[in-house]
Each structure stands twice: as C-alpha cells, then as structure tokens.
Amino acid sequence: MKKIFMLITMFFLLISLQSYAAISKHIVDYRIKAELLPEEKAVSGQEALTWLNDSSIPVSELQFHLYLNAFKNNRSTFMKESGGAHRGFKLDEKEWGYIDIKSFKIKYGPDLTSSIEYIQPDDGNEEDKTVMRIILPEPVPPEQRIILDIEFYAKLPKVFSRS
Asked: Using CA atoms, how far apart are residues 84 and 92, in angstroms rounded to an integer?
C-alpha cells in the first residue's frame, strides 16, 4: 500500500512540476556580478548577456532600457513630465541617479562602447538617455545567439517613483 501511495504521490508531483515549465521560449540569459558601494550609494558591475534571435529575420541592432537615467537630471522625459515630483515627494539635484555603461563588447568580438547611442522613440527629447541603441557590426541571424559583455556603474537615486 505504501508503494502505491508513493507512486501516486510521485505522479502528481511530476505533473505539478510540469506546470511550472516556461510557457515561452527562453531568449535571454543574464549573468550579473555586482558590488554594492554603500558610501557612494552606487552599484558597480559586470554582466554577460546572452540573447537569442527567435525571429525569422536577421537583427542588426539591439536596444536597452536604462531606467535609472530617468533620474539623471531634470531634462529626462520622466522628470519633465512629472515636474520632478511624484505622490508628494520631490527629488532634488543632490539625489540624482543614473547608469553609465563603461564597456560594451561582443564576447570574442569587437568593443562597441563607442557605438552607443541614445534614441528617443516616444517624444524626440534629445536630453533623454533612457533608451540605448547599439548597431551591430553583423546582424544576428535567426535562431542564433549573441553574447555581450557589459560593464556598468549605477548611481542610485533617492528612492523615488519607479526607482
């Protein structure tokens, strides 16, 4: 009787574990090493990002959201739209936050750091640095991966809105 109970339990356990399987294809993997710098209120880190082009066409550029740059100054789109205040809290210049990409390389390939550019797809605000674009030297073919090595420094703003 114990064996039958164990078999039934194992059967239901296996079925329940299958329900936790990924519903969508796994297209990105982040390996991040970060160091908290409490005296600077910052994080310094390195990241290995692996991305799979799961489309049917080659991809020649990659875009990244750099959310902390919304708090870089009072000229970002977020700060202009919010007036620097959110839910009664105001952020002043001594509490700005940002992220700087120190190095951006294709693993076993070229350094693309000097190719970093910022785009403003929503409003054309050239002062906004929250969306970064990299034009790749060669497109990533369908069903192929690219591995990027990224080094960054993030100054943490005072906790404010989406920070």
From this structure: 8
